[in-house]
Every structure is written in structure tokens, then in C-alpha cells.
Design goal:
This protein has about 100 residues and is an all-alpha fold. The protein has one domain (about 10-75). It has helices at about 1-20, 25-60, 65-75.
Length: about 100
């Protein structure tokens, strides 16, 4: 009987070791869960970026309006007959103060 109890204690300690320190231990599961959440957040950000890029590609394929908007915003271009006004704030100066 005593031998059986000792064997059961050894088996129990062996199982406890695997639970806390072995492969698939609780600390490893917690770490992998945190990594999974981080990867999910990155994936959502990348999916949103992909949706924006896809919409931009479709706009560019669809017509000249997207090209015109891009030229106006990025290059500062204007159409013939339009007048460009630049408003300078009074706080900016060319002396570099």
C-alpha cells in the first residue's frame, strides 16, 4: 500500500511539473494568447490599410476625378481659369525670428 501511495505521489508531481513548466504549460498558454491578440490587432490594421488601398486603386481605375484630386492635393496644381489664393498668417515672417 505504501508503495502504491509513493507511486501515485510521483505521478502526481510529474503531472504538476508538466502543467507548470513543460510543453503547453500555463505560462506558455498565457504568452501565446497575448501574442495571438497582438497578431489579431496587426491583422485588423493591415486589413483596414488594404481596404483603403483597394478603394484608391478602384478610384484611379474609374476615371480622371481621382487623378485630378491627387494632382491638386499632392502637387498643388490648378485648372485653367482658376485663381490660386495663398493665405499667409501674420505670425510667419521671412526673417526667421
Amino acid at each position: 500500500m505504501r508503495l502504491l501511495i509513493m507511486a501515485l505521489i510521483i505521478v502526481f508531481l510529474g503531472l504538476q511539473y508538466r502543467l507548470w513548466f513543460g510543453d503547453g504549460s500555463l505560462s506558455e498558454v498565457v504568452q501565446l494568447t497575448a501574442e495571438l491578440e497582438l497578431q489579431k490587432k496587426k491583422m485588423l490594421e493591415l486589413e483596414e490599410r488594404n481596404r483603403k488601398l483597394e478603394a484608391q486603386v478602384l478610384d484611379l481605375q474609374g476615371g480622371l476625378d481621382a487623378y485630378e484630386e491627387k494632382a491638386r492635393n499632392d502637387l498643388g496644381m490648378i485648372k485653367k481659369g482658376e485663381t490660386f489664393f495663398q493665405i499667409v498668417s501674420p505670425h510667419s515672417s521671412s526673417t526667421g525670428n
